[in-house]
Amino acid sequence: MDMKRLMEQAQQMQRKLKKVEEELNETIYEGVSGGSQGVSVKINGKNEFVEVNINEELLDKENKEELQDMILLAANSAVDQARTEREEKLGAITQGVSIPGM
Questions:
Q1: Which domains does the chain have, with CATH numbers?
Q2: Against a cut of 0.90, is the pTM above it?
Q3: From CA 38, how far away is CA 90, in angstroms rounded?
């Protein structure tokens, strides 16, 4: 294979990866626990929390452990969604080739 062509393909892949990475970082993922009467957590594609919503009925000392569990479930759900989408989209570009830092 021609080295010049190989370098061009690598640069093209790098540009695609950068674009997808930027799109993923801006995407908002929501994890919900307990349905509409529970807890929702939103994160961006960099796994930074951007919003937490807790139904007021859960704000009771008697529900403390349940509320903590619901927050953890919602947060983990949002993180899992972000991770799965990142792996799918970046994997489609790299076709299974592991690229350090991605």
A1: 25-92 (3.30.1310.10)
A2: no
A3: 33
